[in-house]
Amino acid sequence: MFKSGVGFLALFGLGWWLLATSAFDGWVRLIEVVAGCAVTLGLMLAARRFLPASAGGPFPPDRRRRFNQINGVQWLLIIGIAVVCARAGEPVLVPPLVAVVVGLHFLPLAAVFEQPRLRVPAALLVAAGASGLAVWLSDGPDASVRLAVGLVSALSLWGVAIWTVTGTASAAEPAGSEVADGA
Known about the structure:
Shape: globular
Helix content: over 70%
Strand content: under 5%
Order of helices and strands: HHHHHH
Number of strands: 0
Number of helices: 6
Largest sheet: none
């Protein structure tokens, strides 16, 4: 179900979406949480249904090692950010700074997976983090920082998941399988 990374994009997109929804209360938040879960489930089911069985197969050992190194550094940085922000009394800075780190981690992953399209979420997540920092620097409320970072991050990850499903599925169609235009 995690074909071509779609499952990871969908689930991490949900995590960012839940961060964004924390800016709201009551029924509004409940509806948004349910909507986010539905999008995530839909993406995972679409990957299962439309991506070829060969999509996202096992990595060769050298790629797996590089992938693990990149993710290890990313998680160490995230832990460091959380600790420093907590000790500085500014936990609101955790989401924007984490978005920047996560965005930057997509750059070497684009090379590891030979997927230049991963540069798109890299740029968007860095922009999401920058937008959250801008809201914080302008003395915006913490909820607005979470909303800005979470919304842009979630939509960018889900967008790349959709792009992956539609791009990979359409590339897998055999030639001549297009529907006739009625002529």
